[in-house]
């Protein structure tokens, strides 16, 4: 029962809180311009009301998306020096660290490297400093501004702690974020940036209930969501917002992919990859959508690039990226009837799959199934049978691949 409670906490934190924390740092830029709503606690005038400074800050954020962290952080640190008493620049610096940490999402989670530990420490320190400054802003009367950064800082902190399996600390951070979330989930400021946060809330509050029935009682404590409305709101942000455009497009790729709206997910993933070519996460999604839409010629090109980037140790390209790239190439060469090349890449995909704890990854199972069929095709029946038996171990008896593998073994 304790384990179930932990799982509920982690899922709820990672999905529900993430609905707001990604857009908060960008929202604050435009909200600073509404002096009747938000005022700077240390100064009634903000550098962010200057269009040149806004463009400079946005340029730094775009560099961050493109993994040009050194250049981006130089600009963020300049803001830290200019506005020492406000959480905005500290939070942006922490956000840069978050993207560095997120770039390791394609690595096996068997151990936390020393480099990741250092990034974790620096990130948590920046979030704590942002929380400290946000509380001062909040206590000095700037409730909305303070609540924005408190919810964002606690939310990011909670997500990292939950990923590191520090359940109690994650739960505390999550509850703190939800406390301030109530104050910023207002829809009376009708701007696209606000549509982004509300869109995520509306979509994922339903998605959580559908995917994790155990969480329905918890989700029921919050306002009722609407998936279709959520997608409309995200589209509004993706098409019309200035600061949250990229974030909205990134989430729409994931949502459209999950909803099997592959045409839209491919279009957006291609745009993100072309705009931020150094971002390995965007590259991974783009190659995956190419495969799912049967654009095998382009998928082959991008998969070969991923393998080359991995071999040359380009930042952000990890074992999961190359695992997928080899699988896609296995399918591509199979379609070209180059069976030896297909077998080579499918086996390479399985080699990198061995580094992951979860052996029931979809592409891993399908790699074994395809290798079984390929060995059968070239007359190596014993090897074929071994691969089909692996499929049986990794799937349930009623699964399609399990049934088909048993039929092949009988033959």
Most strands sheet? none
Helix content: over 70%
| Spatial separation of the terminal alpha carbons | 45 Å
Q: How many individual β-strands?
A: 0
How are helices and strands ordered from N to C? HHHHHHHHHHHHHHHHHHH
Estimate the global geometry from the Cα principal axes.
Answer: elongated
Radius of gyration: 23 Å
Number of domains: 2
Estimated structural class: mainly alpha
Strand content: under 5%
Total DSSP helices = 19
Instruction: Provide the low-confidence segments as ranges.
Output: 1-50
**What value does the average pLDDT take?**
80
Which characteristics define this entry?
single chain, mainly alpha, 2 domains, 411 residues, Serine Threonine Protein Phosphatase 5, Tetratricopeptide repeat
List the helices and strands and how they pair.
Layout: H1 2-31, H2 51-65, H3 69-82, H4 87-102, H5 114-139, H6 143-163, H7 167-184, H8 192-211, H9 216-219, H10 227-240, H11 245-258, H12 262-275, H13 280-292, H14 296-311, H15 319-335, H16 339-353, H17 362-377, H18 381-394, H19 400-410
Helix pairs in contact: 1-6, 1-7, 1-8, 2-3, 3-4, 4-5, 5-6, 6-7, 8-10, 10-11, 11-12, 12-13, 13-14, 13-15, 14-15, 15-16, 16-17, 17-18, 18-19
Descriptive overview:
By secondary structure, the protein is mostly helical. It has two domains: 2-184, no CATH class; 291-410, Serine Threonine Protein Phosphatase 5, Tetratricopeptide repeat. It is built from 19 helices and no strands. The longest helix is centred in the N-terminal third of the chain and has 30 residues, at 2-31. The model is unreliable at 1-50 (pLDDT under 50).
């Amino acid at each position: 029962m304790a384990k179930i409670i932990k799982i509920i906490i982690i899922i709820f934190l990672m999905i529900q809180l993430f609905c707001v924390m990604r857009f908060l740092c960008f929202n604050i830029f435009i909200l600073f311009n509404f002096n009747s709503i938000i005022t700077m606690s240390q100064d009634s005038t903000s550098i962010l009301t200057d269009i040149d400074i806004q463009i400079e800050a946005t340029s730094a954020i775009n560099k961050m998306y493109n993994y040009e962290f050194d250049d981006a952080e130089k600009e963020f640190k300049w803001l830290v020096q200019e506005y020492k008493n406000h959480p905005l620049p500290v939070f942006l610096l922490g956000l840069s660290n978050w993207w560095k940490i997120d770039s390791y999402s394609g690595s096996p989670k068997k151990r936390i490297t020393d480099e990741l530990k250092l990034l974790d420490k620096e990130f948590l320190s920046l979030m704590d400093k942002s929380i400290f400054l946000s509380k001062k802003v909040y206590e000095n009367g700037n409730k909305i501004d303070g609540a924005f950064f408190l919810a964002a800082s606690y939310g990011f902190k909670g997500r990292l702690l939950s990923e590191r399996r520090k359940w109690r600390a994650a739960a505390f951070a999550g509850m703190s974020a939800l406390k301030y979330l109530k104050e910023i989930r207002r829809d009376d400021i009708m701007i696209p940036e606000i549509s982004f946060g509300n869109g995520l809330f509306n979509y994922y509050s339903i998605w959580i209930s559908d995917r994790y029935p155990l969480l329905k009682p918890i989700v029921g404590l919050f306002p009722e969501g609407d998936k279709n409305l959520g997608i409309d709101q995200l589209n509004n942000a993706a098409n019309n917002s200035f600061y949250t455009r990229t974030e909205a497009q990134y989430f729409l790729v994931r949502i459209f992919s999950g909803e099997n709206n592959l045409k839209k997910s491919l279009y957006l993933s291609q745009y993100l990859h072309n705009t931020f070519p150094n971002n390995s996460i965007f590259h991974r999604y783009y190659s995956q959508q190419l495969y799912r839409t049967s654009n095998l010629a382009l998928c082959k090109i991008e998969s070969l690039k991923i393998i080359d980037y991995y071999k040359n140790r380009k930042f952000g390209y990890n074992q999961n990226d190359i695992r997928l790239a080899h699988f896609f190439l296995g399918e591509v060469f199979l379609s070209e009837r180059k069976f030896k090349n297909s077998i080579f890449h499918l086996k390479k995909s399985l080699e990198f799959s061995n580094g992951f704890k979860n052996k029931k990854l979809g592409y891993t199972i399908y790699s074994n199934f395809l290798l079984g069929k390929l060995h059968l095709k070239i007359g190596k029946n014993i090897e074929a049978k071994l691969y089909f038996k692996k499929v049986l171990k990794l799937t349930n008896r009623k699964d399609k691949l399990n049934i088909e593998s048993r039929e092949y073994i009988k033959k």
